[in-house]
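Researcher: Let's walk through a ligand-bound prediction step by step. First, I give you the protein sequence. Second, the SMILES string for pyridoxal-5'-phosphate. Third, you return the three-dimensional complex as structure tokens. Ready?
Model: Ready.
Researcher: Here are steps one and two:
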Amino acid sequence: MKHTRSIEAYEEAKKVIPGGVDSPVRAFGSVGGTPPFIDCGEGAYLVDVDGNRYIDYVQSWGPLIFGHCDPTVEAAVIETARKGLSFGAPTVLETELAEEIVSLFESIEKVRFVNSGTEAVMSAIRLARGYTGKDDIVKFKGCYHGHSDSLLVQAGSGAVTFGSPNSPGVPADFAKHTLLADYNDINSVKACFEASSEIACVVIEPIAGNMGLVPADEEFLRELRALCDEHGALLLFDEVMSGFRASLTGAQGLTDVKPDLVTLGKVIGGGMPVGAFGGRADIMAMLSPEGPVYQAGTLSGNPVAMAAGLAQIRQLKADVAIYDILQMRAQRLVDGLKSAADANDIPLQVDVRGSMFGFFFNDKPVKNFDDALNSDTDRFAKFHRAMLDRGFYFACSQFETGFISTKINEAMIDETIRNAHEVMGAL
Ligand SMILES: *Cc1c(COP(=O)(O)O)cnc(C)c1O
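Model: Step three, the predicted complex:
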């Protein structure tokens, strides 16, 4: 496979864009090599500027559940764009998308649209703080909630601790309000509530997708709900990734636990920049202009983005069996990867939730971030590179989730597995 043009494009990009990319993971830092520069998408495939074709298991990191250039989404976008790109004034499309979300998610009575998942979680946390009058938050090691200051915090070694920033530029004065707990470990959350009586909310990915795929145990979520209630803290489910991915109602379709606030993104924008946060009406009523908590956006609720999101969500709602099909295919893929690994004595952990799949080169089950970090990232990098070279585009880090789109069929999955057998044989 030739990458001449991508290599050239990457060199040019690096001259004018830090690291040549607008989001760090795209630089392929943890797997090495040059990231393919993309020319276009075609259904299940990505096509790079050298003309190489790849079966795409990344799907723009989740949004494209109908794959690239889905005709229905494309038509909605073109039709809406013809009427103007942005007005900075209300449109009916915003209400329509809000109604779809509110009718599906029991926990969302009102919702506000923003431009990214980062903005959604950042705003939801401001709202939780405004509502409770408390400043601290609890987050889990390995969960990603975008790059806003209070959330760019991870643990030091081991025990629960007040957070220290893990990026320069985040003031320690902000980070100290973020307490860290271990995923699937309720005692670590109890320790946070013992350390602080000022906890506004606990934010969690109910199906973690940003340390690889690591679902929360049902019992853990139930205890988390009870702890929040006991201490007057809000429970925030960050479903930016799992929303409309794990099921039509995200992780909430797979658990009985109900959050107070929810963040969405990715699929609700159909590939356009959209985020949203919503929840109980009495909490959302605190938001400006109804209430005192300020939040705004020049391009928020952009009509073209709303149209793309609506086109995806209405298609999903019209045929809920899509999720069973996607889950079956995801399962077929990870079962195939697992048997390829087994055949070559390579330890592999696999899991699936709806259209999300994950695999760790790890000999033990992965329940939290520390477990995930014990994976063999060198082996992952070799696997990634070899598969890419054969035309299979997997997420470029061991700590990411993979996605099946409706355009990825069983034959493509079987072809992927056949190649994985050969690749694993050489690892
Ligand atoms: C992707 C993601 C975000 C951030 O969304 P952006 O649109 O990249 O800002 C936040 N939370 C979760 C769970 C995500 O997967």
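Researcher: And what stands out?
Model: Residues 71-318 form a domain with the Aspartate Aminotransferase; domain 2 fold (CATH 3.40.640.10). Residues 155-161 have pLDDT under 50 and may be disordered.
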